[in-house]
Amino acid sequence: MKILITGGASFIGSALIRFLIKQTEHTVINVDKLTYAANLASLKTVQSSECYYFEQADICASGQISEIFCKYQPDAVMHLAAESHVDRSIKSAGEFIQTNIVGTYSLLEVTRQYWEHLLEPRKSAFRFIHISTDEVYGDLPLTAEPSAENSPYAPSSPYSASKASADHLVRAWHRTYGLPTIVTNCSNNFGPYQYPEKLIPLMILNALQGKSLPIYGDGLQIRDWLFVEDHIRALYDVLIKGKVGESYNIGSHQEKSNIEVVYSICELLEELVPNKPKNVQKYVDLITYVQDRPGHDVRYALDATKIQKELGWKPQETFKSGLRKTVNWYLDNKE
């Protein structure tokens, strides 16, 4: 199978490509604009593979994307290209509207035109997998059940609103045109190769440099934490076994508050890097509370029962085991 992946030089995209090249026989076409958070170095271990191709392109550039489809003739699209940082979306929403909404529309249209001209059995076998976020469901009360696939959408930030819009477009292209789409919504990913603006890598790197560990508000915001390699296996299961027109929540049922996560990182660093920067007695002493983010959601949580029952997927890593692997990776890959 030839799989075209958008945003393949991103944190999750690169993990997906490493998995596909190392553990399957599929061919991968990585289409990435290479914005600030993309890093081709994260694909160094697979870039020489005969099954890997890279094309630098913006998903909004329909003509360029059409040419890539014609050149490679993919059997599936896995759409990960997105602006994904909430803080950035608050400061500069336009880029999020452009990439996440207009870009998804452009990609859907190119894909539809390509798919409509495919001959059987390739046409029936074709898949468009859209990778989205738990944030589309919005803020959950602390006592509420986790969000299920049929929970109403209530996005809070420009980022989550743009991803919700993209989800709706993907479903509309399935309903109206018959395009064989599947939507996945995942919880907070963490693991090796993540860009340092996100909570876990930011805290690891700041602590190692003796810098402050900034926590928004009271730090009691709760997220469900999913190790990236577990997410990748789930996405592959959706590609191979998922039902067209369906949505699948991908979560680990491991909810932690932000402050819990930071304390866990500090505890690991005490064990793994006892030689601290000057003037640091304990890593937890670096924790500082800063003004909360506007519209900060208190809790996200996903009910992943459906994918576990229907596709047989479940996470292999606990938060604790995944965090240890993550911290060790950053210690081993400081460059």
Protein architecture, described:
- This protein has a seven-stranded parallel β-sheet, sandwiched between helices. Strands 7-9-11 form a three-stranded mixed β-sheet.
- Helix 1 (11-23) packs across helix 8 and helix 7 (199-208) packs parallel to helix 9 (258-272).
- The protein has a single domain (2-194, 227-251, 299-315), classed as Rossmann fold, CATH 3.40.50.720.
- It starts with a strand and ends with a helix.
- The chain is an alpha/beta fold and 335 residues long.
- Helix content is 41%, strand content 17%.
- It has helices at 11-23, 62-72, 86-91, 93-116, 122-125, 158-177, 199-208, 228-241, 258-272, 305-311, 319-332; strands at residues 2-6, 27-32, 52-56, 76-79, 127-133, 181-186, 188-190, 213-216, 222-227, 247-250, 255-257, 287-290.
How many helices? The count is: 11
Please give the domain count. Answer: 1
- Biggest β-sheet strands, sense, barrel: 7 strands, parallel
Oligomer: single chain
Q: SSE string, helix = H, strand = E?
A: EHEEHEHHHEHEEHEEHEEHEHH
General form? globular
Largest sheet, order of strands side by side? 3-2-1-4-5-6-10
Uncertain spans: none
Share of residues in strands: 15-25%
Structural class: alpha/beta
Query: What average pLDDT do the residues reach?
Result: 96
Give the CATH level 1 class: Alpha Beta
The percent of residues in helical segments reads 40-55%
Radius of gyration using CA atoms only: 20 Å
